[in-house]
Every structure is written in structure tokens, then in C-alpha cells.
Write the C-alpha cells for this entry.
Amino acid sequence: MTMLIKHAIIYDMEGNPPYKGDIYIENGRIAQMGPALTVCADEVIEAEGLTALPGLVDAHSHLGGFNMVNVDECDFNEMTDPVTPDVRALDACNIHDQCFMDACKGGVTTMCVTPGSGNAICGLAFIAKTAGKTDIHDLVLRNPSALKLAFGMNPIGVYGSKNQAPMTRMGVIKVMRDAFNQAKIYMEKKEAADGDPLMMPEFNPKLEAISLALSHQIPLKIHCEQFDMLTAIELAKEFDCEYTIEHAWGSEFFLPELAAGGGAINYGPVGVPTGYGELTHASIAEVKMLEEAGLLVSIITDSPITMPELIYIQAGEAVRRGVAHENALKMITINPAKALHVDDRVGSLKIGKDGDVVLFTGMPAMDVAANVKYTIIEGKVVYKQGEGYGKCE
């Protein structure tokens, strides 16, 4: 199966200036790019007047696991134990959830899907395409992709109401530190056993899951805002873990510490009600401050908490607050791809990468009337404006 996209204004997110040209996709990968390609294709899309971007990448979502109509149906929050590192979002993800098609409508082709934040240690996230197959496992790029942790009022609110630890911020970090220390001891025993089954510790799925982060196989994905970010950085430093900070509201007060910590920032969403404590300072203006501090910054939607289209709307707000236009586009394409370690496949338009392309009418993050005309995943149209969604295989 081949596809040729003709005469688009191409923003490749590879550092090149935009240009008018063609994109040829073969067997799901970009095979050629350039002006006036002379190739035949099974499907040709005339993109004159349209803007071509790589498929958008959302580094933080709960697609297929949160029912926003019935809050009792929340399969991504196993709130029976504050430490559930071994539960996997992949096992509870409903690919037929309308949110997946909403993501395609918003131009989002790759999502990191993570468990909810009701526990101190929440479980394992995964990364997948948003359409193209009927089995979620066939859409996966990386599983597991991160170990989700949560600071602040989410776990405190869940377990404090049960009069159970953790019911304070002190309790949250203690729960995490205790579990991580147990995992360190578990790993040391396994190493000392040197393959001898008689010396191996009893298999522990919780400690196995935490060990993935302690051994640098996956990063920590840490839900936190305000001064909890400082505690998160200290935890990652203490146990030598790679990490990303999720949400990061109030980060303007901790820019030097965040820069020194070295973790990427997945910022947002800002389309949420602000209230008290950690729910204040949800301002897209902070992404410019974070960028200027030298951090890798991505914009997230937390969908379905907010609509997937908010990803490019927020990018437009970042431009309004002073972020350079192309840098704002990077925050919804190549930056999250790098933060998720899938930039070898997605996040930019480059020969050899996946044929994930979104075609806009108008200029996203610059033109308030910009809309998604086509969303293409691996050379197949999964959404076309006015015609709805393509069929999954």
C-alpha cells in the first residue's frame, strides 16, 4: 500500500524551514520527501493549500480507561492499595472508546496512555497509535513505557478519607521510598543469586515492576505540581531514575531546580478549573519559562480529562505568550516523541519514520481557524474532515 501527499506546506520538525513539497509513504513508512516527486501511488491526496505536520504526539493521556460520563467506571485507578506498580494500563484499555477517534480528529496519532493518579505508585503506562487496528496490542509502540507515580492531593484524597496511609505529603513520599528500597534489596538478592534458583528471592510482581525503573529500563512518570516537584526530583536523584514531571503547574517558582534535575516536562493541561493549592498556576506561559531554562518541554491534554484538540490549541496559546511558532509545534510533535523515547519512529517527517501525517486547513498554533483536514497513520487515512473516520483493520 502506497500513498502520495502532493503540494503540501511541509513542517518536518527536523530543523528545516517549511517548504512546499510531496510526501511518499510505502508500507507504512516515509520513503521519499521533496518537491514534485515523480512516483505512482495507490492513493493520492491533493494537499494544495494544506499544512503538513508529523502526527501529533500526546505524552500524557488516559484514553480508553476513564469514563467521563460515569465516573464510577474508571478502570485506570486501582485504588485498593497505594502501591500498585504491577498493574498495566494496557490490560484495561478499551480501543473502542470514542476518545480514540476524538484523538484522530484532533490530529493526535501517538499517545502515552497511563494509569490514573489515585495511588502513590499507580502502575505501568504504554505508548500506542490512536487508530489503524482493532486490537490495542497491535497499536503498541512501547509497553511498558513508564512507571507512573503521583504526589499531592490525589493519593492523599483517596487514602486520607479511608484513614489509611498515605494521608499526608510525608506519607506519600514514605510509601514511595519504602517500596523503592524494597525493590533495591530484591534486585541485589537476584544479582547475588547469579542465576542459582535456590538463592533467588521469591518472585514479587510489584518489586519486578519497580525494578524496571531502578534499572533504567523505563522512566518514572511523576504526577506532581507546585513544591511536590522538588520532592519528586529528590526521589529520582536518590534512586538514580530517569523521570518526567507531569502537569508541572507552578513550575515558574522552581525553574533552577527543574533545570538542574534534568527531567523532561510534560506540561498541562491548562483547560482545567483552577482552585486552591496545587490547582493554581496552570498557565501556559510557564512553558516559555521552562523552555528558556533549557528543559525539554511538551504540551499534554490529559485526555479525556480535556479534549484531544486542546493539544494544538494550547500550542497556539504558547505562541501568544511568546514561544516561537516552530518551537510550539515541537512541543506537540518531536519533543514528546523524545521524552517518550519513540522519536526513532514518530515526532517528525523524515525518510524511514512512520508515515504519520496530519494535514491542516490553516496554520496550527498560528491561525485560530486551523482545523484538521486529514489524519494519516502509517499511510492510511483514519480521519477526514466531513467524512468521519476510516475503518480499522
